[in-house]
Amino acid sequence: MNALAEASSTAVSGTQSIRRTVSLLRTLVASQKRGATSVELATRTGLDRSTARRMLQCLVEEDVLVFDSSTRRYHFGHLAYDMGLAASERLDLPQLCKPALARIADDTGDTVFLMIRSGDDAVCADRAVGSYPIKTFIVDVGTRRPLGIGAGSLAMLSALPEEVAELVLANNVPRLGAYAGMNERRLRAMMLDARRQGHVAMDVVDVPGARTVSVPILTGTGRPVAALSVAAIAMRMTAEREAMVLAVLRREAAGIGQALTGRAQQAEQDA
Asked: What global pTM score does this model have?
């Protein structure tokens, strides 16, 4: 093997190792509340168990992860926490979105939710309450669900590139049984419908008599990082009202997307 071919092979091997490591970390994000064993992480990522174990041990040595010997589970360590703080300081998405949430709540009178993508999951990062006397609290701040479960979560899943959405679905299918009436076939149909429309309008999962409308928040590259949703009692969500709510959500999502693009450009200039 000549020097050029050897260098190319080394680069490919290094990139593959990085992708495997990121896959482990992304999978652990979805299990962070209880952590995950090396066997669980290997199974969910498709990695060989011995390979996954070696990579996890290396991440522990570098303080990215910690290993609980009593439960045999891995959790994020101090370095991961420091990295999270650094990222949040650069881009505090919930804080950036607060004015938009307030405007949506004022304009619609209903409850508005901010869902943020976290690996294969969606997390409710914030919400604002409108003036309408009947409040519809369909999800609490901090609630984590698989991408595709719930309107905001589905809006993000449907906006992902097809190949990425397929990877997310593959990881999340085993978790769908925890949600009444949900399975891979139904979720795929809902995702395709949302992709065609560019938004989600649906009855709320596990909350009878409630309906929600949602749109994704996209970066300048078209990547969905979050979603805005408005929920109300179903009898209030007429077709005309859904159209009005959708216009408000699209307006605010576009504004947030522009702000994110501006921040990214500024960061590149400052680097």
From this structure: 0.67
